[in-house]
Amino acid sequence: xxxxxxxxxxxxxxxxxxxxxxxxxxxxxxxxxxxxxxxxxxxxxxxxxxxxxxxxxxxxxxxxxxxxxxxxxxxxxxxxxxxxxxxxxxxxxxxxxxxxxxxxxxxxxxxxxxxxxxxxxxxxxxxxxxxxxxxxxxxxxxxxxxxxxxxxxxxxxxxxxxxxxxxxxxxxxxxxxxxxxxxxxxxxxxxxxxxxxxxxxxxxxxxxxxxxxxxxxxxxxxxxxxx
Length: 227
Prior knowledge:
Elements (H helix, E strand, L loop, with lengths): L2 H6 L3 E6 L6 H12 L2 E4 H11 L2 H11 L6 H12 L7 E5 L5 H13 L3 E8 L2 H9 L1 E3 L6 E3 L26 H14 L1 H8 L5 E4 L4 H12 L5
Helix pairs in contact: 2-10, 3-4, 5-6, 7-8
């Protein structure tokens, strides 16, 4: 029996680890479509909560504006509530969680309780590239479309192609805030990778490549092939 057959017995929980701007969001969408599992982005969930001004959103907004991490208890509660929904029965993919060892421990228990298998991938991209990727992002507050000044610019500078609204730079994508986000990642999230490396192999993904090249490597892990 191959590795893929063995893993197929249990629902999979995919963890995409790595710094902000490493390409996890793009790849998570592809993986979710190919595998049929629910894609859960904590960043998107938090931004939605902020936009709707929920109690969680009100607490998270000032933290995210200054590049600080949202407290563990808030994120763990958010994730636990989300994965209890029916679309997560056959597995799910987490983008942006866990970011601290405490979050990882809470997730380990949650995955164990649900009888799931973990597949962990760590995206690696040079710091200078991350700064350029994040600070160049632009967003349409009306239709939620996203752009990048270098890699996917709008046809008319500063204007959304879809709805004609003015594009903005999110507060957490400003260069000084991005630098703080990367510092917070290095201080608090790198130990999460070490947490999992002590338990089983963590697949390293070189994120500084074309999107299709990155997924071709990820597909090997999805098929149970050795890294």
